[in-house]
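Record 1 of the preview.
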Amino acid sequence: MDLILVDLGATIATAPFATITASGQRGWQVIAVTLGCSLIAQLIKITSKLLRTGHLDLRILAKTGGMPSSHSCCTVGMATSVGLIEGFNSVVFAIALSLAVIVMYDAAGVRRHVGQQARVLNQMVSELFSQHPHLSSQRIREFLGHTPFEVLVGAAMGAAIAWLFNLWVLQFLP
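->
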């Protein structure tokens, strides 16, 4: 009886998505969601800076950090898309989710702390080498990571984008 309940739960969780078409023909959706999530997150950063400063800064496309986390958005979008296609109880989804968690941990943990250390080092260099303009003007990049809130917003956006995109695609599948 327990086996039937577990099986039924997996079938219900993936019902409209995994049963419509063979999952092997839907890998393009995962790529499209991943790229789309990253693009949307970066466009939000560009638009918010444009509204704040009045200047269009396309350099943001190559920078890390900021709201929302595009890395979190695209990896959670990828994992959600994989889950919708292959099932949330599949090995492929477990791998995709594990990758997303590692990326989010890195963004909010390791890279953020490296940025904080860079800020301290820059301050030390400025103070120690204030008499040497060439040395005191060289700075280490400080803004590398994300706050936990930026990561959470990126992850929520990724899940929502993936769900909406996969729902939209189902209209066109045989």
